[in-house]
Design a protein that fits this description.
339 residues; alpha/beta; Rossmann fold; 2 domains
Length: 339
């Protein structure tokens, strides 16, 4: 009887230890997330920051980030991804198309979320893409409606004849964008010509040719262009050639107008997806690609003034929303102090 009682006590103690250990493990579970960003520029930086903020809001100190930048080199993306796989990170954020392509090639087990990727079907060579990648991949798209971008160009420059489509030939999503915009512009009566550069080394000569042959230049959401807007602006502005840009960062550097999304919000939405995968156990294979919820017509006030371009009233100056928000924050803080 005594032996039986001792056995019962020991069994109960063991069960309690297992239960406590289980709770402790759940409470102290941590996650490591690898971030591979193709290159440093405002749009991608904002997307990365939004992602980190969203995941930190969800998981707090339980998440740590291994953030690496490929400095514009696709091969470096592959090296970074391989290091994440070797370290067995819990999730990978691939910021921009080459980073996504490297991540998909590098692992079919670790969850991969893309952001700042324009068209997943094109980027991953998926025939009949239906909006869900499947497997271990999902993410967010920065695609603004391309027909509306063409309509914006027409709204601002109805008398223009020749439009140059300036893009990096190494970026598949850029090719997709200019092809789509070209079709839309030709329906509006414009003559369009491709001006492709392979990398930043031949950008200057290609822009120079485009600015001498075109009335307006269109630059899609293109990472190489975004990293070299000063080169584009230094050629187009003296030549008095306006640039319509695919995203706000490019427009801020060399454009007159864009149909803009918030890359911070896009990254935040991606971080929310990551939180649902890591903390809530949501199946990434069933998660469709998400898109920016809204688009804003924005213009570069300085370049428009220098080119003598007046934009319609529904356009918002780049930086105006941020300045207004900062002013409101200061006013709120002042009111709190005075109260």
């Amino acid at each position: 009887m005594k032996k039986k009682m001792i056995s019962t006590v020991l069994a109960a103690a063991a069960l309690t230890a297992v239960t406590v250990t289980g709770v402790s493990a759940e409470e102290t579970q941590t996650y490591t997330v690898g971030i591979c960003q193709l290159v440093q520029h405002d749009a991608l930086d904002a997307a990365t920051q939004g992602f980190k903020d969203a995941l930190t809001d969800k998981l707090g100190d339980a998440v740590t980030f291994d953030e690496q930048n490929a400095q514009g080199d696709s091969n470096t993306c592959s090296t970074i991804i391989n290091s994440f796989v070797s370290n067995n990170v819990d999730l990978i954020l691939a910021n921009a198309t080459p980073a996504l392509q490297a991540a998909v090639a590098g692992t079919d087990a670790i969850p991969v979320l893309g952001t700042s990727v324009t068209e997943y079907g094109v980027a991953l060579d998926i025939d009949g893409f239906d909006g869900t990648v499947g497997g271990n991949v999902s993410g967010t798209s920065d695609l603004a409606p391309l027909d509306e971008q063409a309509a914006m160009l027409n709204e601002l420059f109805p008398d223009a004849k020749n439009v140059g489509l300036l893009y990096c030939s190494a970026e598949a999503n850029s090719q997709y964008q200019v092809d789509t915009v070209k079709a839309a512009l030709e329906e509006l009566g414009y003559t369009c010509e491709y001006y492709a550069f392979s990398d930043s080394n031949d950008l200057s000569s290609v822009v120079t040719t485009a600015s001498s042959e075109c009335d307006v230049i269109y630059v899609p959401t293109d990472n190489t262009a975004a990293s070299n807007t000063e080169i584009i602006n230094n050629i187009c502005l003296p030549a008095q050639i306006p640039v319509i840009a695919g995203e706000e960062g490019i427009c801020a550097g060399c454009g007159v107008a864009t149909l803009s999304i918030s890359y911070y919000d896009l990254g935040y939405a991606t971080g929310d997806m990551a939180g649902r995968i890591l903390a809530d156990g949501e199946d990434i294979a069933a998660m469709p690609i998400e898109y920016a919820p809204q688009f804003t017509k924005k213009y570069n006030a300085d370049i428009c003034a220098e080119l003598g371009i007046t934009v319609p009233e529904d356009y918002v100056a780049i930086g105006a929303e941020e300045a207004e928000a900062e002013t409101e924050a200061v006013e709120a803080e002042t009111e709190a102090v005075t109260e």
